[in-house]
Amino acid sequence: MSFRASLRCLSSSAKKMTSAQRESALRNANEKMKSYYVNRPPVHLIKKKRKFGDGPQDGAHLLQIAAVSSFLCAFLITPFLGRRIAYDEEFRNKYIPKWYDYSIEKPDYAYTRKDLHDQMIQVQNELHERAVNGDFSPEKLEAMRRQFHNKEGSLSEQGKMMGWDQLHPGVDDDEELEDD
Q1: Cβ(32)–Cβ(3) under 8 Å?
Q2: DSSP label at residue 2
Q3: Exposure string for 143-161, b = 16+ CB within 10 A, e = fewer
């Protein structure tokens, strides 16, 4: 007799059964119910925690961790390494091959800041002396402008002659621009 049949018997004949019969039917139902319910110990006692590296896919995880950490280290080290390559000639000669070294040697004739400053002061002094002597009078400036590109007229007229007043230097005044 199955569990459901015993419950039907219990429910249908509840009025007709005596208390002893009812108790035996309940005990029988409880015994059958034990086959459905198994008393198991708690899961944390049965299934032990797996350590990292014991599983079948942990090799892939280790490979991913290694790749990410190497890219992260390369990303963080690059600025410091680049600065050292740029400024430390001994390091560059030791670790960078000659065919990969695109650095440009400084020329021997390069001016120092002091030389450039002295030249600027000298030019300022010469311009000041010329201004005091009258080299920048309006007549002399106009003569200089006429000699500029062998064209006569003021700078604004020269600008018009060179095409600076046009919307596009390659377009004549009578041409119309087409909108695309």
Answers
A1: yes
A2: -
A3: eebeeeeeeeeeeeebeee
Of 65, 49, 68, residue with least CA distance to 57: 65
Instruction: Report yes or no: 152 and 142 within 8 Å, Cβ to Cβ.
Output: no
Please determine, for residue 156, whether its predicted confidence score (pLDDT) is greater than 60.
no
Distances (CA, A) of 23 to 5, 16, 69, 98, 112: 16, 13, 70, 99, 112
| C-alpha–C-alpha distance, residues 96 and 70, integer Å | 21
Grade residue 78 by pLDDT with cuts at 50, 70 and 90.
very high
Measured between alpha carbons, how far is 77 from 69 in angstroms, rounded to an integer? 12
Burial track 51-90 (b if 16+ CB lie within 10 A, e otherwise) = eeeeeeeeeeeeeeeeeeeeeeeeeeeeeeeeeeeeeeee
> Which token pair is 134?
């009258």
Structural tokens at position 180? 């695309």
pLDDT value, residue 32:
82
Q: Are 6 and 22 in contact (CB under 8 A)?
A: no
For 111-166, the three-class secondary structure string (H helix, E strand, C coil) is CCHHHHHHHHHHHHHHHHHHHHHCCCCHHHHHHHHHHHHHCCCCHHHHHHHHCCCC
Give the C-alpha separation, 166 to 173, whole Å: 8
Q: Can you give the pLDDT at residue 42?
A: 73
